[in-house]
Amino acid sequence: MSGDNQKSSLRKDIDENLKRVYENALKEDVPDRFKLLLEQLKAKESGK
């Protein structure tokens, strides 16, 4: 059964690392060039 415990521990470690990476990505700012592109798309959609 130690093999199952190792797999469980490994999965837990992977889950924690993925959550950490995802949370860090959410905290990052959107680059200025993407903001500019979004503004241009909104302007185009509104017919300006």
3D shape:
rod-shaped
| Total domain units | 1
**Rounded to an integer, what's the Rg over CA atoms?**
21 Å
Question: Beta-strand level of the residues, as a percent range?
Answer: under 5%
Number of helices: 2
* DSSP strand tally: 0
Protein name: Transcriptional regulator
Organism: Pseudotabrizicola algicola
Domain Anti-sigma factor NepR: 11-45
Pfam families: NepR
Please provide a brief summary of the model:
83% of the residues lie in helices and 0% in strands. It is an all-alpha fold.
Architecture blueprint of SSEs:
Layout: H1 2-27, H2 32-45
How would you describe what is shown here?
It comes from Pseudotabrizicola algicola. InterPro entries: NepR. With about 50 residues, the chain is mainly α. The chain has one domain. It has two helices and no strands. The radius of gyration is 21 Å and the shape is rod-shaped. The mean pLDDT is about 90.
Features:
48 residues
